[in-house]
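User: hey, got a sec? need Amidohydrolase-related domain-containing protein folded
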Amino acid sequence: MDRKEPKLPSYVRETTQPRAHRRLSRGLRFVLAITLSLVALQYLRLYSAVLSSSESVHVPLRAAEWLDKCQLLDAQPGPPTDFNTRTHSDRFVPGTKAALITNATIWTGGDNGLEVVKGDILLDGGLIKRVGIVDDSVLERYTDLARIDAQGHWVSPGIIDMHSHLGVDSIPELRGGDDGNSFKGPIVPWMRALDALNTHDDAYKLSISGGLTTALVLPGSANAIGGQAILIKLRPTADRAPTGMLLENPYEQNRSVYDPHGHFRYRQMKHACGENPDRIYHNTRMDTAWAFREAYEHARKIKDTQDNFCAKATKGDWAGLGDYPEDLQWEALVDVLRGRVKVQTHCYETVDLDDLVRISNEFKFPIAAFHHAHETYLVPDTLKAAYVHPPAIALFATQARYKREAYRGSEFAPRVLADHGLQVVMKSDHPVLNSRYLVYETQQAHYYGLPHNLALAAVTTTPAKVMGQDHRIGYVKEGYDADLVLWDSHPLALGATPQQVWIDGIAQLAAPHLLSKPAAFQKVPHTPNFDKEVKETLKYDGLPPLEPTQAKSSTVVFTNVTSVFLREEYSVREAFSADASGSLSAGVVVVRGGQLACFGSASSPCASSVRAEENAEFVDLEGGSIAPGLVSTGAPLGLQEIDQEPSTQDGYVLDPLTESVPEIVGGSGALIRAADGLQFSTRDALLAYRAGVTTGIVAPQTRGFLAGLNTAFSTGAHHKLEKGALVQEVGAVHVAIHPVGSPSVSTQIAALRHLLLGETRGDVKEWFGRIRKGEVPLVVEASSADIIASVLALKAEVESKLGTALKFTIIGGSEAHLLAKELGAANVGVILSPARPFPNYWEERRILAGPPLTEKSAVALLIENNVTVGLGIREIWDARNARFDLAWAALEADGALSKADALALASGNLEKLLGVTADSLQGDMVVTRGGDLLEFSKVVAVISPRMGVVNFV
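Assistant: Yep! Here you go:
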């Protein structure tokens, strides 16, 4: 049977066990008790640690990444520590031949731009390896070396444009390539020019041919903060992609601007103030200033949050920190506050300059440069008050007054700023100015007083410094990028043209066409003294009086004259030239009552005739000259003061092809006269007068087809009723034919056919009747060779039907060279406007670039085909530079144009082509000191037979 043993109490069981067993159990219990105590203690410690860890030492999974970022918060951009020991450029193309430039005059950029070295330059691996005399022992290791004999000509660093829109505002201008601005708001620091860079911009090749090797490509100025600019070399790499054009890539890692070794690259940021962002976003200056402050306050908060986060994270204090605070949209602006971004600011007026200086101090970030900056020369102390350092100033040479904030712009600004110890940069704003001719900007700055060393630095070393790239570009030094230009003359000589350009040690001009320049062009040009003008400019806060001063005596004697050029109806001839000895006392010119009385050598009867005249006023020209007054056309000079201010201009005519012209005006028979809308004493007209342009010929402004009747006027007159103010009230009829979509080009040609052959009324009937009789010219504004061809065909058609030879003139003419033979045969003249072609629009894309890209220029080719050629302008500020356009055309003709022929391009030729009759020719003479009108001389007076006076300017 199953029986269950009763369960006894434990103490009864224990006492009933054997004695030995009882002793063993007691020892085991003691050991177990100690062990359990230790385990319990350790458990309590671990539990406490776990509790503590869960509250403050929970290390995030991304902690290492964030700590890396924290370590770099204060890191500053700059080259890697081993940059100066590099053996080849990061842009080097394997297989590129080493090159040796010998017998060069080298402007290195060193010693504040004063260092000039005679000798050689060795290029290898995309770098400059040697400068000076290169020993044969160095060359022994080169078995295949390209050798270039510079023949004593100048070599400079590659030209740097610190303000360009190459690739984002591409040419030819098309809607599909307009990527310069974002219109998503006034503050967009997250935008990047790299994301819009067009590698097929037609301007790259042209700009390289002018010596340009590097450009800072900026977003446009529609936004207060427009985004991040990029610094590119104009030579594309093998991948043909935008990224490959970057000088240094600041975007090497996603959401980062540093490489694995902690080497930051400087970024560049576009800011803008004043009229542009105000106009686009309908703001006032107060709105824009607040937009800046609001944006920087947002960035400052992010920066402070990052700093606070890292202060704790680096101590291991992760409690409550969360994720590393960053915002992809704002990280670039945060980096501005950390000193990693060069701020490039479009800013003109004193009020805007002062605003940005205060904002820079409020948020503690430096401004790299103010661009355009037309009033900076008036407020140097304001610039010096900017945070950390004064901004550099990036300027045009003479382009100004195109809007209100540019109205006080001065050609003397570079000199004045340099006198105050401020950094001066000359820039293009391409395609506003063709960056192919950036060196021309610095030539003008030098002409108006910027020292030669600083003028060359203004397009080389200075922009390299301002952009934080002077460790590799801007100098001819060992270890620097092999970006060089071999010039045919001194880079500051007018018309200086590259014979070869190297980028990364690679020659860029396959078969350059070289020009022969006089030996004098190998020297730094002598420039006039403008001390008086600078003083007056500052005295009058940028708006000095420009009106000429009449001679005190009716008899003025000019001495030390080296040449005299005279008009013979529409042509120009050299009537007097100093002897070969170059004696400064060789010539004397006597003027009585505003009329050229006589001229001759110092021993001539002419000189003797005035010795007894006590009241004669004598003027020493120091080797100067007298030449016909120049003519300006192509821009609305005399019809406007400020291009972007409608209240300061005559305005635009109604076009009967697209609009209804009121009967009170004359309906479709109306023909508007420019003379009725003339404005006198405009600043651009007076500046032109002071530069030797004494006559303006202007047609009414049109945005359509029919413009109206031109007029010729004196640029130095005070008002229309003044004696000599109107040279000729009406001269020629102007029309314009361009591809605008609607109406079509064919419609415009049809309209012109109707005007020439059909029934018309009013003024149109009268003046087109005179055109049909061959009495007055028809001036057709056209650029496309196809349109010009249609105009030539129409001329032949009308002449065949009427049996009369018609006078036609083409103005614009960018592609006219393609029809040079046909134009010559048809006796149709061409006014090239601008004087040096640029394919800004599709209808202008087939330009003849001229040396070094083509053997001939458009001027030379047209003249060679018996075409009467004149030179015009497109913007009124450029009228003052007509003399330099003529000199440049003569240089590019490589001896085919005499000085007299060159002067005719903007005097007799223009008057003939634009309908100024022989009895109305203005007859003004321009007097220059220190050279002739085609040199870097100074215009000192205008002889005006029409007014009967000599005006000093």
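Quick note: The mean pLDDT is 91. Let me know if you need anything else on Amidohydrolase-related domain-containing protein.
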